[in-house]
Specification:
This protein is an alpha/beta fold and 540 residues long. It is built from 17 helices and six strands. The two termini are 26 Å apart. The relative contact order is 0.10. It holds the Pfam family MMR_HSR1.
Length: 540
């Protein structure tokens, strides 16, 4: 029986050690649910009691036997011999039930008695070696073994073998007398049960050699074990309670460790393996994305330089056309062809817009590639999400640590941003350069000058003086130079970004993706740490 306490202590210690290991990791991973489960199991184990029912006469040595089994001298059971009710005594991990009245002629097997005995983990039936299993005990024995089916949990202790006249220190005498008394007990039990069997649990004992008292013998334990045969009783008790208690306790411990370690670890290993594969794929995409994002500014610089060159070329062509006009008709033709309607200047605006659109087409395609990479990364995270959900379903509620460890907030943010960006990107690019209002004013100035020239030409006809004509040409050239000067000056990467609002979205999104990549790596390390912690618990 003492071994029961030791076994229970070992089981609690095993869980406590696992708890200690988990506590060391709780700053890095979520293990609170595991810790709570271990605490609950430890409390359950602490409440686990071994219920022992004693049958036997008042003087059959029940208290002495129990004291020897528990290695305690302060036990007091055995109520007065006239008591006909069962009595319950609690000692640490044990509940001892004494049943002195069950051998009385007026015995009634009431529900309370049946309840106690039906829940018993161990029944110790003590009997006097001189006259084992008195006839008055037969009805109770039959009721106990046959009606209640307690045969496999009942140990018949043939006590006081020293009162049969043997030499206590002669083991041969002990064994010979013990064999004789066991035969008597087996024969009696077969008669009572009307069966022929020899598998009854029986043991011979001298609970108090020479009547020196249990206190003396517990202080001389080695000699006591040699003379009393108490070790054999302990071994039989262990074999009886193993299936009812040891296995149950072990099952509780294994259940917790199974949930925390084995089931979780198998799926965790799968998740780690998949995570590593996906992370390797993401590493490639991450490098592509970093390269493309870093290239945005250089692409804008190139586009900006091409636009400036073409704007300057257009400026020079316009100036040259104005300068080469030798009369009002030629100038009129230039204005109609190159500038357009004096009010709208649609021809000039169209040429400028064409330059921007043609030179930004490559950049548009470049951004499309960035979008493609971002979408591939979003799909990769979607796969990771699905894998996590799949593993979580396998783990069910037994792996709460994964819930706190693997959040999908950043992945959701990435996907929502990409869908928002895709919406922006799907809108056709329309020319809207920096200072659009100012550009409109400058073009209107050119158109107004052209209109004045045309008005004057119509009014004055051939009389329009060369001086005034040349002055108007210079004014027109100055306005053209001013317009293109402003356009060239303000055609730079920052301005071009305003034509492509998606660039700002990509840059913002890129930061999120790169940050999430680092978080994913951290999550993988957390998974590995959790796996290592569980391995330590398993090895504990």
């Amino acid at each position: 029986m003492k071994k029961f306490s030791e076994f229970k202590t070992q089981a609690i210690s095993k869980l406590s050690n696992c708890k200690k290991i988990l506590n060391e990791a709780k700053d890095h991973i979520s293990v609170n649910d595991y810790l709570e489960k271990i605490d609950r199991t430890i409390e359950d184990l602490k409440e686990e009691k071994l219920k022992v029912v004693f049958f036997g006469g008042f003087s059959d040595g029940k208290t002495t036997i129990l004291s020897a089994l528990l290695n305690r001298t302060d036990l007091k059971i055995s109520p007065a011999p006239t008591t006909d009710k069962i009595e319950e005594y609690k000692f640490e991990d044990f509940i001892v039930i004494d049943t002195p009245g069950l051998f009385s002629e007026q015995e009634e097997h009431d529900e309370k008695t049946k309840h106690y005995i039906s829940e018993a983990d161990l029944i110790i039936f003590t009997t006097d070696a001189v006259n084992p299993l008195k006839e008055s005990q037969h009805p109770t024995i039959k009721w106990l073994l046959k009606d209640l089916g307690k045969l496999n949990q009942t140990i018949f202790v043939i006590n006081k073998l020293d009162e049969t006249g043997i030499d206590i220190e002669n083991r041969e005498d002990f064994d010979k007398m013990c064999s004789t008394k066991k035969e008597v007990v087996v024969s009696t039990l077969n008669n009572i049960l009307e069966e022929e069997r020899d598998d009854y649990l029986t043991v011979c004992l001298i609970a108090d050699p020479w009547g020196m008292g249990i206190k003396h013998w517990l202080n001389n334990r080695e000699e006591y074990e040699r003379l009393s045969n108490i070790k054999q009783l302990e071994e039989i008790i262990d074999s009886v309670i193993k299936s009812r208690k040891y296995d149950l306790i072990q099952e509780k411990v294994n259940s917790v460790l199974q949930d925390i370690i084995l089931n979780t670890q198998d799926n965790l290993s799968e998740l780690i393996e998949v995570f590593q594969e996906r992370l390797a794929d993401l590493e490639i995409k991450k490098k592509e994305l970093e390269s493309e994002l870093n290239g945005i500014n250089s692409q804008l610089v190139k586009a900006s330089n091409r636009i400036k060159n073409r704007l300057d070329s257009l400026r020079r062509d316009l100036i040259s056309s104005v300068a080469s006009a030798s009369n009002i008709d030629e100038l009129k033709q230039f204005i109609q062809t190159e500038i357009g309607n004096p009010k709208e200047a649609e021809a000039l605006k169209s040429q400028i817009e064409q330059i921007y659109n043609e030179e930004l087409e490559d950049f548009h395609n470049y951004l499309f590639n960035v979008q493609k990479i971002l979408e591939e990364i979003a799909l990769a995270y979607e796969e990771i999400d699905d894998l996590i959900l799949n593993v979580a379903q396998k783990l069910s509620s037994t792996s709460p640590a994964l819930k706190g460890l693997l959040t999908n907030t950043s992945e959701t943010l990435i996907k929502s941003t990409i869908f928002k960006t895709r919406k922006i990107f799907s809108i056709p690019i329309k020319f809207k350069p920096w200072g659009a209002n100012k550009l409109a004013t400058n073009i209107s100035t050119i158109a107004r000058i052209g209109g004045v020239i045309l008005d004057v030409a119509v009014a004055a006809g051939k009389i329009y003086s060369d001086i005034k004509f040349n002055n108007k040409k210079e004014e027109l050239k100055n306005n053209i130079n001013s317009l293109f000067g402003e356009l060239i000056k303000n055609t730079n990467p920052e301005v071009l970004k305003e034509i492509f609002p998606v660039v700002a979205e990509y840059e913002k999104e890129g930061k999120i993706v790169l940050k999430q990549y680092e978080e994913t790596k951290e999550n993988l390390e957390k998974l590995k740490k959790l796996n290592n912690v569980l391995t330590k618990c398993k090895a504990n």
